[in-house]
Amino acid sequence: MRGAKSAKWVAIAGVVALGATACGGGGEAGSDDMNKGSADPKGIVTAQLSEPQNPLQPANAKESQGSRVLRTVFATLVDYEPGTGKLQYINAESVEPNKDSSVWTVKLKKGWKFHDGTPVTAQSYIDSWNWSANVKNNQTNSSWFQDIKGYEDVHPEKGDPKADKMSGLKAVDETTFTISLNGPVSYFSYKLGYDVWAPLPESFFKDPKAAGEKPIGNGPYKFVSWDHNKLIKVRKNADYKGPNAAKNGGIDFKNYTTADAAYSDLRSDNLDWIEQVPTTALTNYKQDLGKRAIDEEYSSIQTIVPAFYGKQFKDIDPKVIQGLSMAINREQITKTVLHNSRTPADSFVARGVIGYKAGAAGDIVKFDPKKAKALIKEGGGVPGNKLSIQYNADQDHKPWVDAVCNSIKQATGVECVGASKPTFQADLNARDKKQVKSFYRSGWVLDYPVNSNFMRDLYGTTAAGNTSGYSNKEFDELAAKADKAPTLEETVKLYQEAEQLLVKDMPGIPLWFYKVNSGQSTNVFGKIPYGQDGDPIFTDIQVKKK
Amino acid sequence: MGRYAARRLLQMIPIFVGTTLLIFLMVHILPGDPIRAMWGDKAADPAQVAALRHEFGLDQPVWKQYIDYMLNLFQGDFGKTFGGRQVIDVMTEAFPVTLRLTLLAITIEIIVGIGLGAWAGLKAGKAADSGVLIFTLLVISIPVFVLGYLARFVLADELGWLPPNVQDSTNLAELFLPAFVLAMLSMAYVARLTRTTFAENLRADYMRTALAKGLPRRRIVGVHLLRNSLIPVITFIGTDVGGFIGGAVITEGIFNVQGIGNLLFRAIQTSEGSTIVGVVTVLVLVILVINLVIDLLYAVLDPRIRYA
């Protein structure tokens, strides 16, 4: 009797659950057409966001969350055309270099206003950059201004700043100013699309802290409110004059604790866009969402980097690393372990970036166990015949690290294990202190869409992003030459040459490019358009008329 | 009783200082530099890192940091988060949310748990008793995250009866699902506990006396039996309140409840010492007070227990 009862209970529960799954799975997919109906220009988009770590000041958003909000509230001088990565003027009328690209002249479009009604002038930009670069103001992105002359005065390596203005910034008139750089940088204008370069109204400097709670910008949306850990509201700026005016009435950024929670709200139409489908749903989100599933590549790359300061790779023959690279079955791992959430990398530069060349890395990223073995043997073998890949266990890295290790083991017989650090902080700590023994995992999302960002900023001997101790004189010289090139085309070309040096010298093993696996609700009209950095273009999202 | 309470309150001081010191030290042992971690995979600018470390006092020796922290604490200043907000503000946002969730969960726990337990206890050995036993066993054996995801999947995602997540914690309908999941496990324990004491006390002498006096059954069960059986149950529920207020990290995470559990979890992830120590300090106080209240409640429930 007792047994019968419990068995029945379990059986009923099971049937209910199964039945429910079956209905849901079949009914939802494709049942709605996202292009049916019409767009409501006043419709509000709800989007996922985690609590921004820092106040909403333009140069203080190192993480993507704060940056997502800032980009709706502020308009910068330029932006990048989706797809091509080409420069598009937003607040600037023009940004022109002098002959050797060391002095840039910016002309602003006339008649622009901040949300508080004050005009956007050349001085708004100069004051903003001077304030943001100042080491005392503790902006996490302050080093972005280091190309500008006089940066060392406001941001010395040690001690208090000597000045509060960078000598390189000069206002010519109301709407024109010049930027003198420490040296020629032919792609400087491409850097200007990042949020750190936004202008600030006068009211900001009176109380920067309060302004960080309720930013006043010049962008397509006005900031309305920030209910911490819950909701950030921005609404359409009707007076906006830029080319990227909002096609919706505003955005409600809702806070979610987990990707699962957000996904579940997306499925019940309480949320229009999520950042990323939870790992648990990667296998079936396309069935769940049908056409509403989003699967987009963005410009970022994952690599594993040998620690050249360590014993193992100090004087390694690059052939060994080439061999190891060829022992990794990228196709299979991205398909199985990563559920198509990445695509195999075929170069050191991520796709979508200017200067990306399909297949630039050539054969060294192709899976070929025979050649891999031969190359490793030719290069004198892996010292100790044992590798490890350091990663942080608080993010979802273990599955692919294990898969990469297995692939290497099977193809070459070299022993390989994952070396986990409990937290991202601990992982970074070991990397910064040069304690990594073998390989470490590294990720890089573009800062600006030119290939130099994936070359010089990562593999230059003195580059801050180079933490592996890699140094290649030839590469450094070529990079310096590229930066001084008179036109962007030539710069890009020289960096493409430099990339070939990297293929020979292997300062890292490119694994794959990241993808956004996301989805949209039935409230959204048309497909949500994406930018190169893996974030939607919020101004272009349209909401269905109800 | 007054002297007893005073003594207990005095005992709290060394416990309080000890726990805060321990937590403070533990946060400092956490590997890695939280300031450097703000830059992620990108390179950090050493000058800016140094300036920020100075801003948050992280460049001072640990003992000095602790003393500064305690001195500020006695002036009601819990310090700042890395985002520059006052920790006290962050906590006053999160505590009411958790408190609401706790109250709802405890209510469900008391009503369903004691109800089921009393029913099973009165029918000890009969089918109802076995039914409750099986049900509670089942609930106890399912881990909370399975229960949480399953409940949301079936009740919210597929059937659409309840909202899947909490956006507004003052909305009882939204809060019901997490509160229910949170209450499930404890509810099972409460039911088991109540059932046992009920069954035991049914055979007690005072029950026979009451019966012999000719009291109505409602009064026997409702007053004599219930009151005498509640002591162990109250202890359990009391510690549970403490546990719930301490934040149900998993449940709050699943259902998007922006309470203390989530706050603490996020703070630990970013090694935000000021928030961790602040929250734990308040929690230590809350749990000490709750324990005191439970101990005092014993005397109210059972006049034989006296404190001097």
TrEMBL record, chain A:
Superkingdom of source: Bacteria
PROSITE patterns registered for this protein in UniProt: PROKAR_LIPOPROTEIN (PS51257)
A GO cellular component annotation in the UniProt record: periplasmic space
Keywords of this entry: Signal
Any one GO MF annotation of this record: peptide transmembrane transporter activity
Entry-linked CDD domains: PBP2_NikA_DppA_OppA_like
GO process terms (BP): peptide transport
Keyword hit for Signal: yes
Keyword GTP-binding part of the UniProt annotation: no
Stated name of the protein: ABC transporter substrate-binding protein
Domain Solute-binding protein family: residue ranges: 92-465
UniProtKB/TrEMBL annotation, chain B:
InterPro entries in UniProt: BPD_transp_1_N (IPR045621), MetI-like (IPR000515), MetI-like_sf (IPR035906)
GO biological process, one term: transmembrane transport
Subcellular location, principal: membrane
TM stretches of this protein: 12-30, 101-120, 132-155, 175-193, 229-255, 275-301
Subcellular locations according to the entry: Cell membrane
Alphabetized PANTHER family for the sequence: DIPEPTIDE TRANSPORT SYSTEM PERMEASE PROTEIN DPPB-RELATED (PTHR43163), DIPEPTIDE-TRANSPORT INTEGRAL MEMBRANE PROTEIN ABC TRANSPORTER DPPB-RELATED (PTHR43163:SF7)
Family classification: Belongs to the binding-protein-dependent transport system permease family.
The protein's name in its UniProt record: ABC transporter permease subunit
Source organism: Streptomyces boluensis
Lineage, broadest ranks: Bacteria, Bacillati, Actinomycetota, Actinomycetes, Kitasatosporales
